[in-house]
Amino acid sequence: MKSKMGLTTKIFIGMGLGLLLGLIIRVLPAGFIKDTLFLNGIIKVLGTGFISAIKMLVVPLVFASITCGVASLANIKSLGRIGGKTIVFYLFTTAVAISIAIGLGFIINPGVGLDMSSLVIQEPTIGESQSIADLIISIIPTNPVKAMVDGDMLQIISFSILFGATISILGEKAKHVKNFMLSLNEVCLKMVNIVMAIAPIGVFGLIANTFATTGFEAFGSLIKYMIVVLLALAVHAVVVYSGLLKGFTGLSIAPFIKRFAKVAAVTFSTASSGAALPITKKAMDDSGVSNKVSSFTIPLGATINMDGTAIMQGAATVFIAQIYAIELGIGQIMVVIVTATLASIGTAAVPGVGLVMLSMVLRTVGLPVEGIGLIMGVDRILDMCRTTINVFGDCICTLIVSKSENEFDEEKYYSSDDTLIDEVTA
Ligand code: ASP
Questions:
Q1: Residues 6 or more apart from 30 whose CB is under 8 A from it?
Q2: Among 229, 341, 376, 387, which is best to mutate for testing ligand 1, by the most ligand atoms less than 8 A from CB?
């Protein structure tokens, strides 16, 4: 019989069973069953094996996705000002988003009180401070293959950006390389899907381990982590985006929100900006944005603008640093902001990729990737919310750019004729 149960449901079941098993193991006396069979046996294989599978995907995924993201900017030159404005807006708001998340993280301190430092499987490499000059030099790989072998994320990113930009500059002459990279990207995304299919089992092992070793303390911290992410998403949407829309265009946000509700229904249920693309575009058409602007800004936004994802990554970085009792210096925080902003270019518009990219952000500042195990169980719910903000940001940018370019029909924006949207959702 073909299983109809969705992945989200399976992850929740994995989480619940893991929690149950963890609490049972916790009360078992030390000995063969508890230590050898469970903690260092079954649970370790399932949980650590899953994290290793995620780590395995990071280097190829980052290389392929950032290269394709940058190479797809081919038409920036032809779009001139619109292209420039859009990209600056996307990158700037992403950096603001992650700063809000990190700021709230340090106020709410979700991971303080939960000590996982004894569970570090690899030595954290954090600590040495670098001068700005050294940091800049260290971003440039003298050997890109070595950068990939060492998993040096900043070097891989800088090489991928140059590689993608060159593909875009060469155009026709580089079409075979571009096609190859596009297929490689597809293959990497499919691998993410395959690995994600075993997520319920991985989550089962990871959560069982967490609750066997830390008990219910983990619950409170996880809830606080979720609060940080949700609060940062809300602040970003209500304060930053609404403020930018009002400040730059003078438009009231209400007509847009009404149209966006239908887009949000799709982003929320699919957790994929990509899946929501057609209805997002329609919502922008209904809002009076010209096709010239929206046909460029909306697909580009779905590809490179992920403010909600950056928020999760900022909050998760603070959370993971805190549970492993590792202090983040100002230099490391700057590196996290830059890396997560660049990571958003490489995050595919499908469910769960933000979490894989998080392991890249963590590695850049030397935090233990194992920390992802704890937040994995609650990630799907957050993914639904952050994807909604990812798309919300694309729409706000589109409205601002189209108004500033006089490519905007204000009368249509304020009219209540939503027939196009109704057609899509029907
Ligand atoms: N699901 C997100 C999106 O499609 C990406 C992520 O954060 O995983 O926008």
A1: none
A2: 387
